[in-house]
Design goal:
The complex is a heterodimer of chains A (236) and B (414).
Chain A (H helix, E strand, L loop, with lengths): L27 E5 L3 H11 L4 E6 L2 H11 L3 E5 L6 H9 L7 E6 L4 H10 L3 E4 L4 H12 L4 E2 L1 H10 L11 H4 L3 H11 L4 H8 L3 H17 L3 H10 L3
Parallel strand pairs in A: 1-2, 1-3, 3-4, 4-5, 5-6
Chain B lengths: L4 H9 L3 H13 L3 H12 L13 H21 L4 H23 L2 H5 L9 H26 L8 H66 L4 H20 L9 H16 L2 E7 L6 H20 L4 E8 L3 E8 L14 H13 L3 E7 L3 E9 L1 H10 L26
Parallel strand pairs in B: 1-2
Antiparallel strand pairs in B: 2-3, 3-5, 4-5
Helix pairs in contact in B: 1-2, 2-3, 3-4, 3-5, 5-7, 8-9, 9-10, 10-11, 11-12
Classes of the chains: A alpha/beta (236), B alpha+beta (414).
């Protein structure tokens, strides 16, 4: 568990070697986190579900390794030296649009969460997430959907709160539909996608669509409150 | 004795109040100056020392002002308008008032805290200092002109010349003293910044020492007891998070803080994690306090009966309604068995919400977990609704309800 670790050369992606033939090919996942202990833990937990093709402890390592491995999903720590997950996203996202990013952090600071999403991450989960849930989240992100932790859902509801005085530059992007709000509320209440679908009498696919739309709005909207709201919360 | 001015001055200068009163009386004889001074001091000086601010009674002071002016007028009439000494008296009064102002600001206890110079009170401080200085200067110049009149009367040019010389002299002194002053101010500022940094460091060190190290020690001692370790770690995590990200309002003032505090208490008491998400906020009042209490009860129920390690708490404050959802994925229970033996649910949750004009719904199925939903209309909404439909508040669980509001306006984007 000590020290420096770029993708261990001894762990090339060996897809079906484990003898567990699944319908879907195993996802190739890359870990970026400056805590070796945490990387080791995630690697062990996820081993049954996905292939962890490599890890990086620093921003520069991550940038070159992601380019080399081109994994399906990158698990990205928010807080690292040299600019954190944000710097990694900014450096590789444009060059490798097919690589999806899932932010994983202990931080609950709103500006971190919103910042990462706006930089291009397709989801945000906290490090206390259970291994099964993490695996499901990775799968979901790899499929092009979004993953919102309850707290992120709460942040978004707060940031997109319907304010009567708010001037909307782009009504489509700058506000949530009632249905999206309902989905977010249920997410914030701790419902899984399946439960949300049951609760609202819609399909899981529709739930995923709603969440993806919210993610898009969160990334694209220039809504004034978004920045102001995040700034309000940063008062330390 | 009337408005406490003599007493105040006495306390300030640390002279017996009687002496001040005598002095004022003596001055009273000098063209009623005493009374005028009394009035002016009363108006100008703030009485800060007394813990309880003395209410200024304007009626009380009017007789003094009138008396002073009356005596002045009388003296002028009786002694045939001794203009010279009258003017001298007034100039003296100016000097005394100005000096009083400066003196008051330069109180020793303030001067010791030199940092105050750079503090937020600076504008007022400088203003009264300048004003006082101006008064003193005008008074002294006036006195000089009264007693040592320039030959041929105080011509304007002579006065202007004098002022010009004074200004030149002052500028000279200023040029000499400015660097020193500047250095002093800079040093003061640096010292202040250093002190703030030092304070922050000390605060951080204290926090780490009192909390983190303490918790780590406790965790080592309880290493075998998983529940205790979890509880300790969770409590410490919460406290650090609050310290880092949320220097928000106190639980007495803000609803969100109150809810979070209640959740924290339940976490600590029952060694579970409460995943709290709060959207919006409002002031705490009697009704929202009741909502917090009901929320707490719902959390406690989940912690005690659901047999889970995590409970979700979602709180949303909307303009017309406050909503709370407490959800667990625990063992659940059969709704028909809870009627009378579970006072927590009946009295503390459902009853409490009803009393405050809200409602509570509880959904549970064995093996599926439980969700408690609490809704409390805001005060205005409640009034409006009471006017519309007095029977509204009787609508209570168990009401068969499909979730949520009609989704007519939502659109299904592809």
């Amino acid at each position: 568990m000590s020290g420096d670790t770029t993708g261990p050369a001894g762990t090339p992606a060996t897809p079906s070697a484990s003898g567990a033939p699944t319908e879907q090919p195993r996802l190739r996942v890359f870990l970026v986190d400056d805590h070796a202990m945490f990387r080791a833990g995630v690697r062990a937990e996820l081993g049954a579900h996905v292939d962890v093709v490599g890890e990086a402890a620093t921003v520069s390592e991550a940038i070159s390794a992601i380019a080399a491995y081109q994994p399906d999903v990158v698990l990205l720590d928010v807080h690292m030296p040299e600019g954190g997950g944000r710097a990694v996203l900014d450096a590789v996202r444009r060059a490798y649009p097919q690589v999806r990013f899932l932010a994983l952090s202990v931080s609950d600071a709103a500006e971190d969460v919103i910042g990462l999403i706006r930089a291009g991450a397709r989801g945000y989960v906290t490090k206390t997430i259970s291994p099964d849930e993490l695996a499901a989240a990775i799968r979901r992100v790899a499929d092009g959907d979004a993953v919102f932790s309850p707290r992120l859902a709460g942040f978004v509801l707060d940031a997109f709160a319907a304010r009567p005085d708010a001037s909307l530059a782009d009504p489509e992007l700058d506000q949530l539909t009632n249905r999206e709000r309902e989905v977010l509320r249920l997410l914030a209440r701790g419902y899984a996608y399946k439960e949300i679908a049951k609760e609202l009498y819609i399909s899981i696919k529709t739930v995923e669509t709603h969440v993806s739309n919210v993610l898009r709005k969160l990334q694209m909207s220039n809504r004034y409150e978004l920045s102001r709201w995040a700034a309000d919360r940063r008062l330390v | 004795m009337v408005a406490g001015v003599a007493g105040g001055i006495a306390a300030h200068v640390r002279v017996p109040a009687t002496a001040i009163r005598v002095a004022l009386l003596v001055l009273l004889a000098a063209h009623g100056l005493g009374a005028v001074l009394y009035a002016v001091y009363w108006a100008v000086l703030r009485d800060e020392d007394s813990a309880q601010p003395v209410r200024r009674d304007f009626v009380k002071i009017i007789p003094f002002a009138v008396l002073g002016i009356g005596i002045l007028v009388a003296m002028t009439l009786v002694f045939g308008g001794d203009g010279l000494s009258l003017a001298a008296g007034w100039m003296l009064a100016l000097v005394v008032v100005g000096g009083g102002l400066i003196w008051h600001q330069a109180e020793p206890s303030r001067m010791t805290k030199l940092g105050n110079l750079l503090g937020d009170r600076r504008p007022a401080f400088v203003l009264s200092l300048l004003g006082g200085g101006l008064l003193v200067a005008v008074g002294i110049i006036g006195l000089a002109m009264v007693y040592y009149p320039v030959e041929g009367g105080p011509s304007l040019s002579v006065v202007a010349l004098g002022v010009a010389f004074a200004l030149i002299a002052l500028t000279g002194v200023g040029v000499v003293a400015a660097p020193v002053l500047w250095r002093t101010v800079t040093a003061l500022r640096a010292e202040k910044e250093g002190r703030i940094r030092e304070q922050e460091r000390a605060e951080l060190a204290a926090m780490v020492h009192d909390q983190v190290l303490h918790t780590l020690a406790l965790i080592q001692r309880n290493a075998g007891d998983t529940a205790a370790v979890t509880r300790l770690a969770r409590g410490q995590e919460r406290s650090l998070r609050n310290w880092l990200y949320k220097p928000m309002g106190s639980a007495e003032e803000f609803f969100a803080s109150a809810v979070e505090e209640a959740a924290a208490e339940v976490e600590d008491t029952y060694a579970i994690a409460v995943e709290t998400v709060v959207v919006g906020d409002c002031q705490v009042d009697e009704r929202s306090r009741a909502l917090v209490a009901a929320t707490r009860e719902a959390l406690v129920n989940a912690a005690r009966h659901a047999k889970v390690s995590t409970v979700s708490l979602y709180v949303e404050v909307e303009p017309d309604e406050m909503s709370v959802f407490v959800r667990d994925r625990g063992v659940g229970f059969d709704m028909s068995t809870i009627d009378d033996n579970r006072h927590g649910v009946r009295g503390s949750i459902v009853g409490r919400m009803q009393r405050h004009g809200g409602r509570a719904e509880i959904r549970s199925e064995p093996g599926e977990g439980t969700e408690v939903r609490l809704h409390l209309p805001t005060a205005e909404t409640r009034q409006r609704q009471a006017a519309d439909d007095p029977g509204w508040r009787t609508h209570v669980w168990p009401a068969a309800e499909p979730h949520g509001r009609p989704a007519g306006t939502s659109k299904e984007t592809s």
